[in-house]
Amino acid sequence: MCAVELRRKRDEKLASEEVPAPEIDPVTKAKAATVVQKAWRNDVARREVKRKHDRLLEILGLAVPSWNPNGYLLRDGEACRKANMDAQLRAASVNDRAPQIRESHGLQVIEDVQDEIRQWFFLWFEDIGYFDSLPPQEVGGSKLIATGQTRTPAEYLAGLTADSKPKGNTKKEETSAKEEKEEEEEEKELGWSMPESKVLAHLEGAIDEFGERWAHRVDALLGSGGLLVDLVREDLHYELQLEMRGVADELAREELDKLNRGLAADIALEGLPFTPPPPQFDVLKPAKASKNQKKKKEAPVEAPLEEAEELSILLELLEDGVLRLPGSSDGEPEAKLSEWPGVVSVALGPECRLGDLKQPVLDYCVLPVGSRSVHELAPLVRSVCLCGPAGSGQDFLARAICAELKAAVFDLTPEKHVGRFLGRDGRNKLIRSVVRLAKAYAPSVVLVRGESAWLKKLPAELRPVQPKRFAPIYQKIVNSIKPGDQVLFLTTSSEPYLASAQFTKLHDKFIVVPIADRSSLYRAYKLSLMAYHGIDRNLELSALARLTSGPQGTPIERVPEIIARALPATRRIQLKRRPLRPEELLEQWLLVDRPEDAQLNGLEKFRAKLPLEGKRRKLEEAELEGQAQPAGKKKK
User: Fold this and answer.
1) What is the largest distance, in Å, between two alpha-carbon atoms of the chain?
2) H helix and E strand count, the chain
3) What is the pLDDT of residues 344-364, one digit of tens each?
4) pLDDT for the residue 295
5) Distance CA 116, CA 156 (A)
6) pLDDT tens digits for range 373-419
7) What are the Cα distances from residue 209, in Å, to 202, 212, 372, 440?
8) Are 284 and 294 in contact (CB under 8 A)?
9) Are 211 and 70 in contact (CB under 8 A)?
């Protein structure tokens, strides 16, 4: 019989006076009340201290809260929108003054530019006795005179004397040519030399602009609501100067013609020929093609889509399940690159951890596709493959890439399009539609899950799908990607070693996702468990992470599955009375599928065959040989 039933029967007997109530001494009663109150007060005090300690850890960022209120986000967003509106109104008020600035300062700017050009005329006439020709408007006009990019009279005279000397290779030229040949031979011996970067000039220009215009204005920018009126005025005056400089150049050319005619007349009176300096800048005219030169076949230019045709293709792809617009999850959980639980490796060596994958994902997938200028300047990466054991995180990274780019996703996984796009006409129509819309709605991602289209041996369950018919489609889509298109062909694969050589040739880059290490697993367990309100914020998980890591450890995408199994609704109700123990998670970990030895060995062999991995191993062998040679000489 349970204690509750016994207590109920005792109370009934006491109420019916069958059993006389025990006599309690008042002193004992008072002491008992004191003990009970002391115990309850201690318990309340301990709970309050624990609550304050947890709150302090949350404020310091040392503990993960189960819920983040979004009230402050809404307040900050409203303040930001208000500041942007104020900045736009102030910018509009300044831009409205552009006609007034043009009327009040336009004539003065023209006179200043004319005085500058006349001073340049006077300098040439004083030194040589002739006037140099103005640079053409196509090259920059008088702006080249203001910036000092035109030749001086001394440089012109030096060029005349150099032309009068007999031509021939001097000893200095011969020695410089020999030095260049020696440098080229040294670079060939080294085997690799750093190529010139197309981005370096743009980076230096951006750094210089920041130093000139923004470095000393950071405090003013923060205190002005996002608008600096003096910069807007400078831009307006700069545009006015460019506009008025064109007018001044036309007037200066007319004045130069009059001066040249007067100078020619004065020289003709003396009986001398008039030979003004030849122009420094010539506008190149397109060369005429010779008759014997064969005409090159130009690639046919695709006509732009009309609005009605584009809308019909868009709706058709949406109905077929090929296109997924930005913001639509299609039933998949949201993923952010900032939520990737990987921890960066601090050890030297080629082995990487999950945290090291974030940088190549940003370099190859997010940054080039997200910016048109970067996509034009950076080395072209058209296709990327995320490969690793099943559940190791490649699907999460693919969703995170699409979310970071806010890209239109064209899902061309063969298993999702059974019975569609059959025949040559259907495939050609799909290629044209995907290529045109992907470039029209850039940034775009063409997503393929799995390697079924390139399998060497097709399993029986995939034969009705006919995945190999998509392989030529993928190849044509990748070939159509050009610099500046902002289109990425992204593939996820768990068994790339089963695919043919065409799979490796199609992809420009391979990002191999390893098995989760101990630190990454600990962080994944911690972040996933802290989403539950009743979980202790100081739950010890390091031993669990150590046990579940290793070569055949836990893939990172299996962690939420383990926690969901260990914490059903009935168990979450009991968390306040019966806290969660790591042993419960370990029991569920034993029931989760983990990668087999055959899969891990196949991935290791596939990674060793990659071109970049082969180059890395050759460099390591060369370094080891270079270190071993001096040691051998010393022994002799």
Assistant:
1) 152
2) 25, 6
3) 877 656 677 888 888 889 888
4) 46
5) 20
6) 888 888 888 899 998 888 888 888 988 898 888 888 888 888 887 77
7) 10, 5, 21, 32
8) no
9) no
* Amino acid found at 428: N
In contact, 562 and 589? CB cutoff 8 Å:
yes
Coil, strand or helix at 511:
strand
**Amino acid occupying residue 350:** P
Residue 440, number of CB atoms within 10 A of its CB: 14
Gap between the Cα atoms of 564 and 333, Å rounded: 15
Strand pairing report for 487-493 and 509-512: unpaired
With 60 as the cut, is the pLDDT of residue 631 above it? no
Give the model's confidence band at 35: pLDDT under 50 very low, under 70 low, under 90 confident, else very high.
very high
- Residues 525, 100: Cα–Cα separation, whole Å: 65
CATH of domain 307-344+351-512: 3.40.50.300
Q: How far apart are CA 537 and CA 529, in angstroms?
A: 9
Residues present in the chain in total: 636
Q: Is the peptide bond before 286 cis (omega within 30 degrees of 0)?
A: no
Q: How far apart are CA 563 and CA 565, in angstroms?
A: 5
Residue-by-residue DSSP string for 354-378: GGGGHHHHIIIIIHHHH-HHHHHHS
Nearest to 385 by CA among 79, 589, 61, 607: 607
Residue with tokens 């000489």: 633
Of the candidates 462, 125, 138, 460, the one whose C-alpha atom is nearest the C-alpha of residue 263 is 125
Judge contact between 474 and 412, C-beta under 8 A: yes
Note the pTM of the prediction, 2 decimals. 0.67
Distance CA 335, CA 352 (A): 22
In whole angstroms, give the CA distance from residue 476 to residue 432.
10
Query: Tokens standing for 382?
Result: 């058209």
How far is residue 353's CA from residue 549's CA, in Å, rounded to a whole number?
Answer: 12
Inter-residue contact 375 to 483 (CB < 8 Å): yes
Helix runs in 270-346, H state only: 307-320
The Cα-based distances of 26 to 21, 30, 245, 438 in angstroms read 15, 6, 107, 87
- What tokens does 585 get? 């998670």
Structure tokens at 306: 């009309």
Cβ 537 vs Cβ 57: under 8 Å: yes
pLDDT tens by residue, 502-524:
888 888 888 888 888 888 888 88
Count of CB atoms situated within 10 Å of the CB of 159: 13
DSSP code per residue over 372-409: HHHHHHSPP--EEEEE-STTSSHHHHHHHHHHHHT-EE
Structure tokens at 286: 């397109």
Domain ranges of the chain: 3-60, 70-163+202-280, 307-344+351-512, 518-594
| Among 458, 483, 482, residue whose Cα is nearest residue 470 | 458
- State the Cα–Cα distance between residues 627 and 524, nearest whole angstrom: 41
Peptide bond into 551 cis (omega under 30): no
Q: Tell me the backbone φ, ψ of residue 70, rounded to 5 degrees.
A: -105, 15
